């Protein structure tokens, strides 16, 4: 088998192992708690930040999964766990049919397949490396000769819309925010990954520049056959980029489904509140009442039962006791809300039909 | 609640009036003109949003109004009158009374604006004591009253919190309480909701709108987000490279933007722009380098409708509608836009 890193003509599609039906990435039971004190008798750690607390999802080949949620909901931690920057406490990550960390797919091989772009374009670049050295760094670590790695860096610069002759020798501080983020994208693509995780990658940019970078991301996806996990707090941007959307709240998945369904007729009350919180763009139709009161609760001691029940306007007694499972309300649309589940005992839930086929 | 669509026209003198305000930073290798002639007038009970991208001079304008810029490295020109007084002529004691007493400011990061080693309630009480010469007890009482007014839950116990014990949204509410502690007439808000979550941002925006109406405050609200400006503003002023390129009634500016820059910003943000499978309409290039501005209109190098006349001089303000002006030569009578010309041909 030829090594995709050493052979620049290698077709990424030829790396497909499981076929189109196999999700590119599937994650089950992902858990990450930070800190806390564990008793010598064992059991749950006390006072731990339950950043990610049992998350399952899958990303199909060639799609863009948008991940939305407020600060503390665990979206960035999920991204870092998928990227294996931090180790999960529990859970399994399967990439194209191979468990990550197994003999068939060790971490070095996995990191050629998955790359990440961060929010802070300046902090994520080494200030003492020139642009071409930054981009060539990854391939060189993975054994590409220097001359060839530099050549590939120049190709990538052109691909992200920066003229190699002008930009190759510059340092990060000589670039604008938008240019730096293009460098970060080029660096992520240098190892020819199949999955790119974009963690708030356009959030720090000025609006006029943000639109340019979003267009670039769409072009690169089409040209290189990439799959994106696109994390953002901006629902407009997610609507534009994503095929499917996953909404997270306090370390759990609240709702996941096709983006046009989720962002138009959400089933989870939290998704509805997020949508209603978006500032109006019509001066005659301003928001009159805030959809939610207060801040998201602290993930150190999340509410019992449904984690959203403390802020939900449809909350009922059962919500504080029963954690809602993530269940399908229609094909490919899953919701973790007792109201959406027939026979759950929530007053607004449909009764259970015994004779349902 | 009805929207504050028509604010009362200020009678007599405006509360805030800047004429040809300029700010030059001289500390670096090359002098930078961050604000290049801003005329801004604001009456009581009016909320104007300064809209612009990073480096457009919106925050510097705000700081100049309160004389918060470092005096040795920043030169302020033009005139600033707030509540009938010349801000540049204030002495040290007058300035201390003016800050907080007449004009107050809320910042993007409330976590950085509070002193981390004092209780939040004490910091508010101290401001009231210093400004109004009252006892500690009545300072605390006022702090409690304000905490309840900005709807901090269990206000009495929250007064004894240190800033780090509060969540972001609650800290911003406390910041607003601090700003209102000495009954200012003018409130300056510098991206007060940018660091907040979406569901919290809308709460703070609605709170500000409500307080502004209740206290009859004049508010200058700096933001980069058109949606946020649309939610709160009576009037909008769009800044680019240190100048106001378009200003007018909120509805007019949003519905019928007259400057190509405003149009570009709106087209890249409006709801319909984010349709899947289409490409976003973008403004090419990047925000301008303030040390090397082009002659004439600073937006011309990025403008699809630029023509040679754009470089001849900075365009004057031309009326686009009755309540709305813009600095673009396309509004001059007889000047035809290129896109119109091709459409006619």
UniProtKB/TrEMBL annotation, chain B:
TM segments? none
The record's Gene Ontology biological-process terms are:
peptide transport; transmembrane transport
Q: Which UniProt keywords apply?
A: ATP-binding, Cell membrane, Membrane, Nucleotide-binding, Transport
> What InterPro entries does the database record attribute to this sequence?
AAA+_ATPase, ABC_Ni/Peptide_Import, ABC_transporter-like_ATP-bd, ABC_transporter-like_CS, Oligopep_ABC_C, P-loop_NTPase
UniProt keyword Transcription regulation present? no
User: Where does it live in the cell?
Assistant: Cell inner membrane
Q: Does the keyword tRNA-binding apply?
A: no
Q: How does it sit in the membrane?
A: Peripheral membrane protein
- Which GO cellular component terms are attached? plasma membrane
One GO term in the molecular function aspect is: ATP binding
Pinpoint the ABC transporter domain residues: 16-266
| Cross-referenced Pfam families | ABC_tran, oligo_HPY
Identify its protein family. Answer: Belongs to the ABC transporter superfamily.
> What's the protein name?
Dipeptide ABC transporter ATP-binding protein DppD
In its UniProt entry, the species of origin is given as Rhodoplanes roseus
């Amino acid at each position: 088998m030829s090594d995709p890193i050493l052979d620049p003509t290698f077709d990424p599609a030829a790396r497909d192992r499981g076929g189109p039906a196999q999700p590119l990435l599937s994650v089950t039971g992902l858990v990450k708690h930070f800190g806390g004190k564990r008793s010598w008798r064992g059991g749950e750690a006390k006072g731990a930040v339950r950043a990610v607390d049992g998350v399952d999802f899958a990303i199909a080949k060639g799609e863009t999964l948008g991940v939305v949620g407020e600060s503390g909901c665990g979206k960035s931690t999920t991204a870092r766990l998928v990227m294996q920057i931090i180790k999960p406490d529990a859970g399994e990550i399967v990439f194209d049919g191979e468990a990550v960390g197994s003999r068939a797919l060790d971490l070095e091989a996995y990191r050629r397949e998955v790359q990440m772009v961060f929010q802070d374009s300046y902090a994520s670049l080494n200030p003492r490396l020139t642009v071409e050295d930054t981009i060539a760094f990854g391939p060189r670590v993975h054994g590409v000769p220097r001359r060839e790695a530099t050549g590939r860096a120049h190709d990538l610069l052109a691909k992200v819309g920066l003229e190699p002759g002008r930009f190759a020798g510059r340092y990060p501080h000589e670039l604008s925010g938008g240019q730096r983020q293009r460098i970060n994208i080029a660096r992520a693509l240098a190892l020819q990954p199949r999955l790119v995780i974009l963690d708030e990658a356009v959030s720090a940019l000025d609006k006029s520049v943000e639109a340019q970078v979003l267009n670039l991301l769409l072009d690169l996806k089409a040209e290189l056959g990439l799959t994106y996990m696109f994390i953002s707090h901006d629902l407009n941007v997610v609507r534009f980029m994503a095929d499917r959307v996953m909404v997270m709240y306090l370390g759990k998945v609240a709702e996941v489904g096709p983006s046009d369904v989720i962002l138009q007729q959400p089933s989870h009350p939290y998704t509805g509140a997020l949508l209603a919180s978006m500032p109006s763009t019509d001066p005659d139709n301003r928001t009159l009442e805030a959809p939610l009161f207060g801040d998201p609760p602290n993930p150190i001691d999340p509410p019992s039962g449904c984690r959203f029940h403390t802020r939900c306007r449809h909350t009922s007694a059962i919500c504080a006791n029963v954690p809602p499972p993530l269940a399908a309300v229609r094909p490919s649309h899953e919701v973790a809300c007792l109201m959406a589940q027939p026979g759950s005992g929530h007053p607004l839930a449909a009764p259970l039909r015994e004779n349902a086929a | 609640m009805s929207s504050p669509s028509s604010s009362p026209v200020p009678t007599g003198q405006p509360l805030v009036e800047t004429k040809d305000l300029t700010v030059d930073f001289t500390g670096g290798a090359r002098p930078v003109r961050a604000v290049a002639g801003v005329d801004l007038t604001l009456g009581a009970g009016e909320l104007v949003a300064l809209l612009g991208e990073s480096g457009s001079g919106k925050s510097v304008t705000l700081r100049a109004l309160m004389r918060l810029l470092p005096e040795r490295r920043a030169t302020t020109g033009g005139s600033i009158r707030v509540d009938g007084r010349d801000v540049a002529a204030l002495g040290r004691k007058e300035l201390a009374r003016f800050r907080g007493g007449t004009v107050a400011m809320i910042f993007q990061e409330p976590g950085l604006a509070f002193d981390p080693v004092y209780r939040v309630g004490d910091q508010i009480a101290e401001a009231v004591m210093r400004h109004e010469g009252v006892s500690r007890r009545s300072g605390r009482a006022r702090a409690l009253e304000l905490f309840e007014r900005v709807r901090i839950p269990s206000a009495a116990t929250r007064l004894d919190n240190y800033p780090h014990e509060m969540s972001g949204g609650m800290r911003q509410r406390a910041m607003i309480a601090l700003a209102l502690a000495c009954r200012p007439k003018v409130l300056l808000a510098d991206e007060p909701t940018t660091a907040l979550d979406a569901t919290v941002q809308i709460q703070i925006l609605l709170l500000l709108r409500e307080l502004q109406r209740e206290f009859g405050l004049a508010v200058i609200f700096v933001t980069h987000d058109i949606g946020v400006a649309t939610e709160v503003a009576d009037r909008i002023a769009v800044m680019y490279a240190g100048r106001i390129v378009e200003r007018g009634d909120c509805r007019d500016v949003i519905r019928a933007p007259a400057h190509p820059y405003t149009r570009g910003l709106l087209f890249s943000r409006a709801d319909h722009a984010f349709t899947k499978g289409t490409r976003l309409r973008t403004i090419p290039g990047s925000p301008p380098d303030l040390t090397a501005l082009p002659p004439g209109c600073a937006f011309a190098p990025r403008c699809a409708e630029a023509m040679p006349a754009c470089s001849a001089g900075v365009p004057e303000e031309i009326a686009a509608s009755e309540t709305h002006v813009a600095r673009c030569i396309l509004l001059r009578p007889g000047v035809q836009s290129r896109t119109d010309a091709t459409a006619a041909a």
